[in-house]
């Protein structure tokens, strides 16, 4: 064989291997669980009572895991707080905690349950994975003793962590993640001294994991995707929906698109706390999702995903988020500019007074451009274009740049920005862009009834969020949600008890 022929064959085989890699898929599952909660108490219950409650929740999760495996799922994600709930003080959660070792110990709790002391929860989760030949992702509590040699050691002599664990299809512990960005009220837990970028390899791609509130911050969420180059993010969450921008399905699907990564998001289900919304999200949009505020039932979702989405032909192109907005002159600014608050952030709004048009609204040097055409301009509905550029300081401190077309709850402009779930106006066309200073922007389109619009919109390489055809349902909001991580204030220590 001539050298040139050998080289040609090598190139052909390499391309074939790359093509095969790019076409690899896997079946993913998430389970939205209606958690059985403990009775509120300031005093710790007995270890037996704690395990009894956790067993009740694991009975439900085991049923979902078996069903997912029977339907061919390779991995299943269950929610944050899914095994014991969230009604705890630091003292009362202690009976629910186990010592979770570093996965380097090469441990299968199902076959060696007492190796690191009593671990009935890890044993059962491991056996669920092993007996069903499926990766299982769960959220439990870790405890680690410390003493006076550690100046940060809590007064009770232990660290307590909100912890995600992953068991592979043989039941081996392959990942452990301690939540870094604790939400308000998680006083029962400590945060790790340094953020953990936890990844693991599987036959169907590289995975990373973090929990709930973590998704709004650079570490570990962005680090896992931008630096560690994971293919899929595992995301247990207990997410309380906040309209108009931060419903679970809306933001988590937008994050997957903006970061160009798969996200498996499993939410807890508790309608009294506005907790619902789980999904399996790809960079091109939601593969499947569920939002249910009508019943208290759990819900299993299963969908096929590309194992290596960056190599997929469906992967969206890289975006220069301010390219278009910086290249055009400001559209007309009308006399209907006013201010209003969304989640305590002060927006600048301008009203869409005509059935079609081009509008610009600015807040200081940050400008949002909108071209639009309504299917019909209704007298009983008001839409506005809003801009926000500033530090959000309510449940955390993080810097936002937001452009949004959104429906107001009524024709009274003072209501604009308040939550609204239903609308009647469809749009034949919209094109939204902004002069973003950040490269981290998450595109959201939310329809009436809090429904997503997979396949009905796209982001152009120049940063414009546009619809493909007339919207199939009335529009609640079209939003570009930007996070400018470099402008976040320095992290302040969260107090240890």
Automatic annotation (TrEMBL):
Domain CN hydrolase: 31-307
Pfam families cross-referenced by the UniProt entry: CN_hydrolase, Vanin_C
Biological process according to GO: pantothenate metabolic process
Keywords: Glycoprotein, Hydrolase, Signal
Record bears the keyword Glycoprotein: yes
Gene Ontology MF: a single term: pantetheine hydrolase activity
First and last residue of the signal peptide: 1-22
Superkingdom per UniProt: Eukaryota
InterPro entries according to UniProt: Biotinidase-like_euk, Biotinidase/VNN, C-N_Hydrolase, C-N_Hydrolase_sf, Vanin_C
Location of the active site: 80, 179, 212
Coiled-coil segments: none
Entry's family note: Belongs to the carbon-nitrogen hydrolase superfamily. BTD/VNN family.
Protein name, entry field: CN hydrolase domain-containing protein
Taxonomic lineage: Eukaryota, Metazoa, Chordata, Craniata, Vertebrata
């Amino acid at each position: 064989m001539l050298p040139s022929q050998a080289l040609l064959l090598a190139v052909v085989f390499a391309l074939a291997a790359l093509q095969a890699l790019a076409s690899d898929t896997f079946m993913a599952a998430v389970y939205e669980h209606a958690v059985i909660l403990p009775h509120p108490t300031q005093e710790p219950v007995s270890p037996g009572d704690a395990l009894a409650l956790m067993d009740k929740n694991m009975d439900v999760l085991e049923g979902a895991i078996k069903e997912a495996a029977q339907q061919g799922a390779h991995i299943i994600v269950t929610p944050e707080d899914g095994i014991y709930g969230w009604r705890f003080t630091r003292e009362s959660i202690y009976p629910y905690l186990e010592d979770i070792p570093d996965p380097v110990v090469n441990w299968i709790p199902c076959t060696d349950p007492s190796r690191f002391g009593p671990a009935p929860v890890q044993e059962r989760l491991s056996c669920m994975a092993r007996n069903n030949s499926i990766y299982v992702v769960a959220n439990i509590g870790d405890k680690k003793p410390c003493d006076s040699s550690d100046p940060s050691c809590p007064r009770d002599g232990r660290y307590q962590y909100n912890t995600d664990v992953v068991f592979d299809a043989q039941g081996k512990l392959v990942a452990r993640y301690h939540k870094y960005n604790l939400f308000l009220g998680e006083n029962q837990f400590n945060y790790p001294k340094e953020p953990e970028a936890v990844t693991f390899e599987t036959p169907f791609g590289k995975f990373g994991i973090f929990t709930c509130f973590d998704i709004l911050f650079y570490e570990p969420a962005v680090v896992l995707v931008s630096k560690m180059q994971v293919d899929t993010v595992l995301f247990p969450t207990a997410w309380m929906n906040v309209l108009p921008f931060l419903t679970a399905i809306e933001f988590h699907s937008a994050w997957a698109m903006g970061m160009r990564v798969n996200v498996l998001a499993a939410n807890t289900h508790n309608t009294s706390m506005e907790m619902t919304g789980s999904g399996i999200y790809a960079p091109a949009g939601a593969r499947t999702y569920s939002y249910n505020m009508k019943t208290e039932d759990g819900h299993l979702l299963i969908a096929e995903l590309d194992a290596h989405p960056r190599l997929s032909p469906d992967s969206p192109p890289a975006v220069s988020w301010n390219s278009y907005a910086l290249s055009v002159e400001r559209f007309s600014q009308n006399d209907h500019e006013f201010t209003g608050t969304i989640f305590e952030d002060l927006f600048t709004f301008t009203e869409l007074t005509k059935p079609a048009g081009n509008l610009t609204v600015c807040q200081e040097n940050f400008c949002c451009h909108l071209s639009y055409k309504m299917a019909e301009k209704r007298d009983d509905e008001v839409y506005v274009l809003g801009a926000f550029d500033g530090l959000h300081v309510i449940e955390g401190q993080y810097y936002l740049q937001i452009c949004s077309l959104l429906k107001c709850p009524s024709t009274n402009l003072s209501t604009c920005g308040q939550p609204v779930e239903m609308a009647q106006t469809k749009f034949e066309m919209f094109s939204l862009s902004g002069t973003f200073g950040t490269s981290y922007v998450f595109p959201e389109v939310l329809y009436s009834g809090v429904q997503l619009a997979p396949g009905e919109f796209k982001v152009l390489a120049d940063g414009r969020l546009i619809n493909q055809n007339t919207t199939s349902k009335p529009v609640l909001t079209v939003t570009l949600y930007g996070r400018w991580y470099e402008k976040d204030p320095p992290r302040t220590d969260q107090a240890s008890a």
